[in-house]
Amino acid sequence: MGIFSFLSTSGKKVLGLGDNSEAIKNEIETSFEALPVEGLVTAVEGGKVTLAGLARDIPTREKVILIAGNVEGVDSVDAEQLLTPELIASSNLRDEPEPNFYTIEKGDTLWSIAENFYKNGSKYTKIVEANLEVIKDADKIYPGQAIRIPSLTMA
After folding, report:
1. Where are the alpha helices (DSSP H) in 73-143?
2. Domain 101-148's class?
3. pLDDT exceeds 70 at position 73
4. pLDDT tens string 92-132
5. C-alpha to C-alpha distance for 50 and 74, rounded to whole angstroms
6. Is 4 helix (H, G, I), strand (E, B) or coil?
7. Which residues of 138-153 are buried (b: 16+ CB within 10 A; e: fewer)?
8. Is the pTM higher than 0.85?
């Protein structure tokens, strides 16, 4: 799976202030303590962001996709060329695990999301931990924001 859809009407405002491709790249790179993708290349055409490079692992790849998609004006992210060592080592690049993304809706809380996915609201901290680069403050999530829902075995 390489193309992901997002709500273009919500998210951080970083487009339209100069070089949009550079703005998305900067947003990704500054969201991590260490550079998450070797040779990161970003391109913005209309509402579509294309990403390429070598992410250190699959969770990092998913976070990079979410950071790019959680920008106002972005309606899709093409990550076909954003690879990981696991994907390269795989005999079939289509064996990529299906990410479990969730788009926050009005009235959602991290507790209610954890209740929905894990049947235990107190596990919301697992969602926060899996989204540190996307959720900067657990008390400040917004409708339209996309997040990762990790499996409890991976969290």
Report:
1. 85-89, 110-118, 124-130
2. alpha beta
3. yes
4. 555 555 678 899 999 999 999 999 999 999 999 999 988 98
5. 11
6. strand
7. eeebeebbbbbbbeee
8. no
